[in-house]
């Protein structure tokens, strides 16, 4: 009898016996296999990760022996899954491996693609080439789940073929109506945005399959899609088909052709979704195809933009409105807006226009103490109020956003982004760094002799920003400042939160031995706890860990991840709104400002794929809070980061 056509050791065969049905070498058996129907070709496929553009999961089910799916390198476990469209009786799976093969892997089936995975085959001694497996199982979803790579690379399949029959008879065979009105709604030098009219179906449409130049590239649940990572001055042709729960597919929509804008004339250098700047090795990504993950970010960004990006005061200004803050416009929100908008260039054709409007607003509202910093608060008339001085967190993001803009569009246009960034960075150093401690202060109003001068806020400690400031200015003081903030982080974790790794909102005694605030020092009785400021720390610490691979940032992030995963038992719904440093919940409600940031720390642990997926899925299931720019802006930036779209200029 045979289970893998290339042969297995006795131990592997013994393992396979647990799952495989013996294949008797007779003409009857051979005929039965030959009669099986190939079910997987052209069906929607997703994967735990994708090495890069051109290696999407769909390449393993496209019927071509020259294209392939490839996972990220050097990481276990990884998987690829195909949706057969309806429950099927499965009799055979054929895997055509590239050189990067699975040594230990399972074939699994599921009714819904998320729970109840059943093993129908398993081996620990796979050796690549072609594995033609005779087995028995049923399910709508079939996946290859790799637990040990055969090489130092990743997993890669030229073809993932599933054979069998759609069982039962009498099922739904009526396809959805053909989508109509497909149109290109916008282009950049690297993207095409599409929209179409919804189809109807007797049971229900479950998704739309987008084809570019005759090749399926994505499946989305809604009636819009932005195709990113395209080449400038290039024409692309698109069609859309609707698919229902039974796997029936409609006819193709009308064809639309769109041409991307010319490059070099204002198009972004790092368009959203291009993934040209890799993360540190081994950092996780939420399960699913990269294109599907990117689209989820674009969808959320579109909602965020509609809710919070405003032009309420004329003058060519754009502002980020903050309905949940003390004032309608605050520096923190403007900084978020600048970073987000520059990052989303390539997905949003209006990104540069919005960014320049935010810059114009920033320049029109200087701090009274240092004119190269942003005044922290404005009223409904966009007039600076409450002292007109600065807030450090807003300034950190403003400077970082300007550096992103310089990389995206260059600095030869209306604004010299690089020059403005360096002026802002130097102003931060002059007015928002305590020179005696090399730690950030609260703003340019906190000066020597002020009671807050030897205090600092942990959520302002943006380590990747310090790296960018060092690169932009060439000033090594930013290395000293970065290292000091990392050292204090480690000391706070070990000295005051050894079991949790949690940091407090505010730190006092920075001129001697920094420690958590004892009660209220600036905002709240919980100033010394993990509360409404420090909730951002897992994201801020994790962002540097995943992009730089720095050992100090990784250690801090992993400590947080280990604790919160254990504390919640892997249930993302159990992440509370605030904790004391010993891990006791302050408020058991759920808020995106608290649960979303832990997704970034989850990325740093190879054993946290399911945990990362749980937080990602919770984010997707949580409607955007249009009355809370704070939670929505944090979640959006976390989504950008966990989908590997965050980058350091």
Automatic annotation (TrEMBL):
Gene3D superfamilies, sorted: 1.50.10.10, Galactose-binding domain-like, Immunoglobulins
Keyword Hydrolase: yes
SUPFAM superfamilies the record matches: Fibronectin type III, Galactose-binding domain-like, Six-hairpin glycosidases
Family assignment from sequence similarity: Belongs to the glycosyl hydrolase 8 (cellulase D) family.
Pfam family, one: fn3
Species whose genome carries this gene: Kribbella ginsengisoli
CDD domains, sorted: FN3
Protein origin, superkingdom: Bacteria
Domain F5/8 type C: 26-165
Keywords: Carbohydrate metabolism, Glycosidase, Hydrolase, Polysaccharide degradation, Signal
Membrane spanning stretches: none
Residue intervals of the Fibronectin type-III domain: 175-263
Signal peptide: 1-34
Protein name: Uncharacterized protein
InterPro entries: 6-hairpin_glycosidase_sf, 6hp_glycosidase-like_sf, FA58C, FN3_dom, FN3_sf, Galactose-bd-like_sf, Glyco_hydro_8, Ig-like_fold
